[in-house]
Amino acid sequence: MFSDWSHCIRPNPPASCSGVSVADLLGVGVGQFVVCGSEGPNRVFTWVNGALADRTPRALADDGRATVAATAADVDGDGLEELYVLNADTFTGPTRHADRLFHRSADGRWHDLFADPTNAAARNATSGRSVAAVDRRGSGRYGFFVARSGQPMRFIERTAEGHLADLAPALGMDACTVGRSLWVGPLASDRPDLFCGNERGPNFLYRNTSCGTFLEIASAVHLTDAAEHARGVVGLDADGDGHFDLAIANWDGPNRLMIRQPDGTFHDRATAAMAYPGPVRTLIAADFDNDGYEELFYHCLGEPNRLFRREVDGTRPLEWVMGDVGDAAEPDGYGTGAAVADIDGDGRLELLLAHGERAPQPLSLFKVESGDNHWLRVRPLTRFGAPARGAVVRLRAGGRTLVRVIDGGSGYLCQMEPVAHFGLGAVATVDEVRVTWPDGATATVSGPRVRRTFEVAYPR
Predict the structure, then answer these.
(1) Which tens digit of pLDDT belongs to each residue from 12-64?
(2) What is the pTM of this model?
(3) CA 417, CA 193: separation in Å to the nearest integer?
(4) What is the sign, positive or negative, of the torsion defined by CA atoms of 89, 56, 11, 70?
């Protein structure tokens, strides 16, 4: 399925890398790949003259720290995304270097907000693996939920007084476990819920009460999976009913495809091939070939990567089957993070894979030739003009309704581009696109033209 485009990455020496995120950190109006250096500098790659070029701002390189994950979101409502950088040089417990929260000023310079004395108490200096952006009140200002290892979870948010504070204790979200992965989206409510995949203990599902608070309900909806060790996780409409389901990759344990039932509980519907255990790190759902159906890509450590797709009979999707991953199999890859984005603006998604947990390896870039398949990309914005992470986009075309969520991170180490990408196959006419923001506000665009990317402003 995938073709190797790694020759486009310049430079691309062997390196020990971890998470991959996508955000516009250069202020050029399109996203860049942010690659976390677990043993070396962080790097920011943008598409320039047919190549994926390193254009890392000096402050963000932050060499000498062990960065495992990074997540972008607008914390202060200035229309620009901050970048939360999670540093972890140990498996659990205290770390040598605390986390960063980089803020970009109007002149393009970056400053670590945690370096301000008023924010020092909120700074995390404990090992973790994932961080996710959550607009819990629907205000357009985001907080960062940090999944930590062996220490209480944290929810870092900007207060009315303008400083950063950990609100997890007040919200009842400060459980102590070995946190591994996070996903933000409407799993149990119509607002951004938060799923936490954990190791050596049950998973959590925090249901949004629509009042800025959460209730933990994983046991009630059958998502605890307490005997397994969660890694990659992603939400998608896996059965075509218009609701988000949850795919979970467990480390050397059975993988899950948790399908939402009419009563709100989740049941595992993974096929035997999908459930087969392996050393999975990152899990991605995306329509790589623009045929109108999402694929599931499993990024592995020391074993071939896997791809699953839907068999289709006419317009009726059938069982998930293993697909040909092509050049992206990488049987000798020491896989860590991965992310997708239409980095070159041609309407097809690029897949960037990071490696290096056991030994340094170069990055890999892959792409699928989607032929004449149509596509449409939707970028919702907050009331401040920043990416509306956590917003839900529904597209109606060809007798089907497709649904995507704007990614807040971090399925495991990573964060996808803040764009809803829809492959359409042979369908050339879209009936409507409907965006729902985290506060429940909606906007509808009727009959948008296909084969383009367009923004949808928050309805004022």
Answers:
(1) 999 999 999 999 999 999 999 999 999 999 999 999 999 999 999 999 999 98
(2) 0.97
(3) 19
(4) positive
